Amino acid sequence: MALLSPTRFLQIHTSAVPRSRKPSPSVSCSAENPDLDLSPARSSIPSLPAAPSDRKSNLTVFASATAAICAAAGGGFLFHFSSPPPPSGGGIGGGGGGWGWGSDGGGFWNNVFSPLPASASEDDQVSGVEWDSHGLPANIIVQLSKLSGLKRYKISEILFFDRRRSSTVVGTEDSFFEMVSLRPGGVYTKVQLQKELESLATCGMFERVDLDCKTKADGTLALTVSFVESTWQGAESFQCINVGLMQQSKQVEMDLDMTDKEKLEYIRMQERDYRRRIERSRSCLLPEPVQDEVVSMLRDQGKVTARLLQRIRDRVQRWYHDEGYACAQVVNFGNLNTRQVVCEVVEGDITQLSVQFLDKLGNVCEGNTQLAVIHRELPNQLRPGHVFNIEAGKQALRNINSLSLFSNIEVNPRPDEKSEGGIIVEIKLKELEQKSAEVSTEWSIAPGSFGRPTLTSIQPGGTVSFEHRNINGLNRSIVGSVTSSNLINPQDDLSFKIDYVHPYVDGVTNPRNRTFRASCFNSRKLSPVFTGGPGADEVPPVWIDRAGIKANITENFTRQSKFTYGLVMEEISTRDETSSVCTHGVRALPSGGLSMDGPPTTLSGTGTDRMVFAQANITRDNTRFINGAVVGQRDVFQLDQGLGIGSNYPFFNRHQLSSTRFIQLRSVEEGAGKLPPPILVMHGHYGGCVGDLPSYDAFTLGGPYSVRGYNMGELGACRNILELAAELRVPIRNTYIYSFIEHGTDLGSSKDVKGNPTEFFRRVGHGSSYGAGVKLGMVRAEYAVDNNSGTGAIFFRFGERF
């Protein structure tokens, strides 16, 4: 009476080289010892993309289905990407009622620790290209035992013959090809071929298997693997369990001398042990729809076959890998010869998180950055107790990279030697230098006689900048810069800015993300308020000098949405071309003279104002990139509130709201090299002011970021403003072309600005434009038509309009 345990595992051992004929995402695992290679292939693809940065920050997320395999194999393994399909077992071992990746008596993990089964693996081939001719007549069948033990045979072809189906296929086209370690073109000895046959015969995948050699005229052998596939009774249900971090049970072999009663008791004991194993396991992440799909596969097939289990394994692993769980691996099938198939998965549970700092030579060293700063940037899914996911690794890279403290960042999962199936996530960081300084100089060049370029001045201009970052290891920093167009005599137009940044106001361990910033500044900009209208004579420019201090606190709700509030104290001076203080705007008269009775340049009328006001800004931004195109929504509200402190006790409320929608017009497949979707951009901007308003703070109409087709401030200066714009972007190759239409109006408020600069400089207070353009890298080349005059012009602008 022959008895068979329904819970006995059928195990696949790892010595065979898996097939690599179908490209699909997977991960391979390679050891320092090249003779132990559990990878599906040795080829690799580039590492994951890093967040944009000027520094060399790259993410080394070595992930794959076999990462879980290596978790049990010790610390000498390294994970990397590869293009072949998810790793699968090579041969089959054991027998009875289950199928899995492992060796007899200990499951898969025991096999990793055990010596490799005897088989002709890729690295066991006879080295070199020399081989011996078989020396036999062509086209005859030779038994394996009749081959010479002294010759080295070259296998030119491998075929598979299914005895049950009576069909023959080329080896690489059969799903069992991954079970055989022999390869066409390889050179093997008789002993190696016999070991391969023994390995296949004892793996449990086949009820019967033979290796037949056929001689060829060129002296090589054609190998045919003839087999009868193992089958089990049909199943109607499917269960997927997570056996990661579970101790692998020791399989006890059935003694052939057992009585029938002892065999029956043995089977019952195996069933009880396996039921307890299932009870101790955790639920897997595999969703119900995929499990239902597997159940349909079982019911459609009828009997459970080895090929069906391969398909189930591939389907389960494909879901894990598509979802980013690249360390997940199907390690076993249990409960075969029952009405239920149990799929055991090691999902890649994170057991430990390690942060290491590296010096310039790549050696581990003590870092300056406090670990709490790093830990707060890590997503929860990358912490112990969660399953390792590639997307979490990418997010960790982006978050750490945003600190701007490191020149190189690596996120590496590696096996936990103390916990079977566990993953240790290692984060390796190279810190930037804490202190840096830079000097850049420039000379202005203008066309001279005959168009030859000449220096406008021998006096060099330039910028001196310095930075002290990561003070006390808490990401605090001091950044400063000094700029002048005349470094020899810088007091003429010296501008400077010094910033102190203090993140984690509420403590580095507090989840609330608030940052304090303090600035001391002195800047000069050309005012667009005092600008002539269309066709007007050139207006003498008015420069706005601002010097003061600003302090604010920014609270980040998400990486793009934030709330900023603070206080500004500044002195504003208006100056002419000679750097002298000017009190009124100037325009040219028809007689050639200058009118000096223009609108006052300051609130006090002296050319210099001092004021203190509160400032707040809230940004809601959920935009994202789809193949390089921006999609989503962005809303910004800003408020400036005068406190009645300063020249003429200014009390005012200046507010503005902008809203932009990036509407995706067509669904596209996301991925590297894929074409972005066409985008419709809708934009609106409203601004208003009540109370005391100095001319230099009036809203201006016209310009590349207001109404295109006009110069800065060409349409007017006003208390209230409304701008509307629409832009259609159509992708072509590596860029996009676009068309746009825009309109801006002062809502009749220009007359309420002190001195009415809009009327004084002969501007109309409203305007529309339309046109088209193309994006060339960072440059926008566009043709815009001015509706007020009906003329068009070509413009080149840097950056984005919205």
From TrEMBL:
Location within or outside the cell: Plastid, Chloroplast outer membrane
Region ranges (Disordered): 16-55
Annotated Low complexity bias: 16-31
Bacterial surface antigen (D15) domain: residues covered: 470-802
Domain Toc75-like second POTRA: 238-349
Entry GO MF terms: protein-transporting ATPase activity
Membrane topology of this protein: Multi-pass membrane protein
GO biological process: chloroplast organization; intracellular protein transport; protein import into chloroplast stroma; protein targeting to chloroplast
Primary location group: plastid
Alphabetic keyword roster: Chloroplast, Membrane, Plastid, Plastid outer membrane, Protein transport, Transit peptide, Transmembrane, Transmembrane beta strand, Transport
Domain Toc75-like POTRA span(s) in chain numbering: 137-229, 350-431
Signal peptide: none
CC per GO annotation: chloroplast outer membrane
Family: Belongs to the TOC75 family.
Name used for this protein in its record: Bacterial surface antigen (D15) domain-containing protein
Organism expressing this protein natively: Zingiber officinale
Lineage of the organism: Eukaryota, Viridiplantae, Streptophyta, Embryophyta, Tracheophyta
